[in-house]
Amino acid sequence: MGGSGTICDTTDMRRRPVVGLVITALMATTATCAPGSESRPRATSGEISRPADAALSAGPLLLPLDSAPLVAAAPDAAPLPTIPAVLSSTGIVVPVLGREGDGWKVSTPCGREAMLTSATPLLTGPVVLDPGHGGYDPGAVGPNGLYESELNLAVSRHAAAALERAGFATVMTRNGDHGMNLVNRAKLAVGLQARAFVSVHHNAASWEPSAIPGSEMYHQEKSAESKRLAGLIYEEIVAALRVYDVPWVTSDAGVTWRTKANGDDWYAMVNQPRGVSAALAELAFISNPAEADLLADPEVQRVEGEAVARGIIRFLTTRDAGSGYVEGGQMPPRPRTGPRGGGGGGWDECDDPAL
Fold first, then answer.
1. Does residue 106 form part of some domain?
2. Residue at 46 is within a domain
3. What is the enclosing helix (H) or strand (E) of 310?
């Protein structure tokens, strides 16, 4: 890192996985570090196991730029960097729409326009984790009352922690229980030029008994790298969960793809991050009473998160092929169910967090 580069002194937030555990950011003269806020409990376990030594020596993926004011450059000066996203003073990651004076014009998690007078700009190249659902959209609810949105967030935090320990800068699309549309989740992945994008979910589809965990991964139909990412996460999550003696269930989807009639990928979090290797991970069945009880255990949430991280690290550091692949197909037309906010349009009922 250059001597003039600045890393935000996030004394109260540096270990909060709102954008992973370490944020390396460009600091404009108008930008300030997020004020101290209450941190969520963290995993304190040791380093996760890694199949390749390359993960141990991986450096940060976000490099600091010179902390100069974001003002118009002289005609012969190099162009200023484009900032795709910023971290608000309350710890919310939002896409940037542009600059207005000394402020940032941003799109809120629910897709509304807002102005920030101070923010921490983020640079490109991280892993982006997307905890599915959130806020007014809880996703599936287990027989034990476990909310999928809360489970997805807990698992994603553990995955972010493990990735950061291995040296991979990580951004989370949300780090609290608030609404977020699909458009902005994908916009963060594309704008930040994510090295990998994984949307973390837990299943509630129809199922039948299985000898092993019925984890499902969905990848981009036309992307070999997206397929490999999904196959590696599948290997890691099935290996991590199958040690538990519970009556597993499956829908036999495995690692696969689904398309619309026009050939586009069916799932928004696979389709919308165009140009980014993306996977949607249904880690286990929250609708299965035995699995729901298991998933309520914080230790199992850590196990799941670290398995997701291992799959991503293998994707980034090896040419392992992954496994579990099942031929996909076109999804039949069906009406959308559940909260409309899942469609990503900035709906009135979507609950934005304070920025």
1. no
2. no
3. helix 298-317
The DSSP H or E segment spanning 258 is strand 258-259
Dist. CA 248–CA 131, nearest whole Å: 23
Q: Give domain status of residue 61, yes or no.
A: no
Contacting residues for 278 by C-beta, under 8 A, at least 6 apart: 189, 196, 197, 198, 199, 219, 220, 223, 226, 229, 269, 270
In the chain, the number of structural domains is 1
Nearest alpha-carbon partner for 320 in 230, 255, 199, 237: 230
What gap in Å lies between CA 337 and CA 179, rounded to an integer? 17
Torsion over CA: 162, 167, 170, 176 (sign): positive
Strands 208-209 and 170-172 turn out to be unpaired
Name the helix (H) or strand (E) containing 301: helix 298-317
- The whole-number pLDDT of residue 267 equals 83
Residues 349/340, Cβ–Cβ less than 8 Å: yes
pLDDT tens for each residue of 167-206: 999 999 999 999 999 999 999 999 999 999 999 999 998 8
Three-state SS at 341: helix
| The pairing of beta strand 258-259 with beta strand 249-250 | unpaired
Q: What is the CATH number of the domain that holds 283?
A: 3.40.630.40
* 272-311 pLDDT per residue, tens: 888 999 999 999 999 999 999 999 999 999 999 999 999 9
Domain assignment present for residue 306? The answer is yes
pTM: 0.77
